[in-house]
Amino acid sequence: MNRGLVLRLESLAQLRGACRQLRALPCRKVWGAQWKPAQASAHPLCSVLLRPQLWQKHRLIGAAAAQCRHLATKEETKRKKKKIPLTRGEVEIRQKMTIEELARAMGKDVDHIYEALLYTDVDLGSLEPDSILYEDRIKMIVQKSGMKYKSAKLKEEKERKNTDAVKPPADPAVLTPRPPVVTILGHVDHGKTTLLDSLRKTQVASMEAGGITQHIGAFLVHMPSGEKITFLDTPGHAAFSAMRARGTNVTDIVILVVAAEDGVMEQTIESIQHAKNAGVPLILAINKCDKPEADPERVKKELLAHDVVCEEFGGDVQAVNISALKGENLMVLAEATVALAEILELKADATGLVEGTVIESRKDKGKGPLTTAIIQRGTLRKGCVLVAGKTWAKVRFMFDENGKTVDAAPPGIPVEIMGWKDVPSAGDEILEVESEQRAHEVIDWRTYVEQQEKLKKDVEVIEAKQKEHRREYKQQQQKLAHLTWRQRKAVLYKANKHLLFQRPKDRREMAEDTLSVIVKGDVDGSVEAILNILDSYDCEDECKLDIVHFGMGDISENDLSLAEAFNGVIYGFSVKANDSIKKLADKKGIKIKLHNIIYRLIDDLKEELSSRLPPAVVETTIGEASVLDTFSVTVGKNKIPVAGCRVHKGLLDRKMKFKLIRSGDVIWKGSLSSLKHHKDDAQVIKAGMDCGLSLDRNLEFSVGDDIICYEETEVQQTTSWDPGF
């Protein structure tokens, strides 16, 4: 019967379907010793198998197979579905289709798929209708069937209607004057916050960690003349470039603070560039003019190189010499700001739907997500429904910069908003919508757009990888073209066998030289600044840096769970970890590192990266000797080369390691087998003494060789990453 099976496969592939039906017969032992010819021959299908002269009569075979179809099991009957007719000879395929799904897509029987795979290296005996075929096999089957293929769309759906929030144009007839929004920019420690303190009569600078601003602060200042000015105090530290750029994008006027004794610095130049990119006019405030070393004229001349031309040099930039600490000339600076605002004719629509910009966002333990925002249009009141990014809010409370509740916020006024469902990102645009239902529609649309963009990028990456894989596969097949398929299979197995065993080991080794970090910050801008610094990490060959999670708020149990799972370190910036969290972290051996100054956090991170590096072996020279003569001694039947040396520096200690240098090249490293002074064994030979020595390896000496005695010590390496400050 086995011979009959082979003949069937080689002469008439259609019999495979009949054989599959035969397995469903009540007599399950038809292939074995219990097969009863009388019963089997009575069945039409068995009579065909037993009478080879009927094999060429396709109609009889088809009829016999047809009569057996009622013997199929219920499960097989359920799997049989209606074939999908083909359109234009194209088969719509996707990754990882089952045999049954591909057959339906091609409008063929399952047996057609088996036939297409008959003379390939696929093991047909292991295949079932629900077996998965990969893309390369699917394409090969379709092509062998004389058809074309096309990739199926990931999801067929109608074009979705854009339901995003829109900004209606403002009516010029309803525009009213508004307070100017002024951003204070400049280098770190040039006195920006002290200037704002003097204008507000507060002490913000004394409360800041390290004496440097690390958040954007929005404040409303009432001038003695009655005018109002909204000030944004931005960080001057190098790490907060994104915050400075965000400040200039929502501002009307930039006050550039430059210290009279320091002059133009790195962040000064960057601030000028931000103002130019935003098209915002500048006012120059030369601070610390009360110091003896102050030189305001030098500052003005240095700024000429950066296209900042003061009025006295024929330009349009007002320059005011001030002392923020002593309060000198501050009113002159305020008047210059008010005068420039009048020239700009700043107006806004105080009616209609609210528009604004998120300046900063954070999470408060009692109040939930909070945002500091500048209102640019409309009047914000309690109960307004707002959207920003992919979150929304129904305004519950509003606070001014002093934490007092306010009932309304007109254009140009900074306000802290409470009632957000989630924390929006700093820089997001705030738009008011008519209802909560409308807010959900906007958020759904924005989420959909983001998913589509991500999906498009993912497909591009996948296609690029598949193209590269196909190219490599083709090259590999060309190299093995002269072999039979069995030989190719054996060669490929031998080539890839080691990967199966090394993969878990590689994962362990990767974990050892990878630093996983969880970053938590008090506000969105701080987290953004830290992530921007981490993006500059370029020492992956030393130690990989993996950002597992980042967010706002105090350290939580979820952060500990992530750190435990990834063997990571938690870095907190201006956040807290309560006692229970600290105890749990100690119990699990998880490091929590809290900082209030950003450059100290980065220094701590660099130390942690350095601790993950393997120690470097440093050689310390103890002594040096020169070979003056060579000879050999006989020990048993062996001749051992001996060098007669003189120590001219340090000492030779037999317990230490030695190396032999010839013409500047190290030709041997190891230990000594003997060290003698005259005929006596010696442990140490000091400078100026002669000695004879032999190595632990039979190596011929040459006159003029150098013998170096050295000690190896392990030194902890430091990361070469330079974050730029």
Automatic annotation (TrEMBL):
The lineage of its organism: Eukaryota, Metazoa, Chordata, Craniata, Vertebrata. It comes from Cephalopterus ornatus. Keywords: Coiled coil, GTP-binding, Initiation factor, Mitochondrion, Nucleotide-binding, Protein biosynthesis, Transit peptide. Pfam families: EF-G_D2, GTP_EFTU, IF-2. NCBIfam families: small_GTP. One of the essential components for the initiation of protein synthesis. Protects formylmethionyl-tRNA from spontaneous hydrolysis and promotes its binding to the 30S ribosomal subunits. Also involved in the hydrolysis of GTP during the formation of the 70S ribosomal complex. CDD domains: IF2_eIF5B, IF2_mtIF2_II, mtIF2_IVc. It is found in: Mitochondrion. One of its GO terms (cellular component) is mitochondrion. Residues 452-479 form a coiled coil. GO terms for molecular function: GTP binding; GTPase activity; translation initiation factor activity. This is Translation initiation factor IF-2, mitochondrial. Residues 177-345 form the Tr-type G domain. InterPro entries: EF-G-like_DII, IF2_II, P-loop_NTPase, Small_GTP-bd, T_Tr_GTP-bd_dom, TF_IF2_bacterial-like, TIF_IF2, TIF_IF2_dom3.
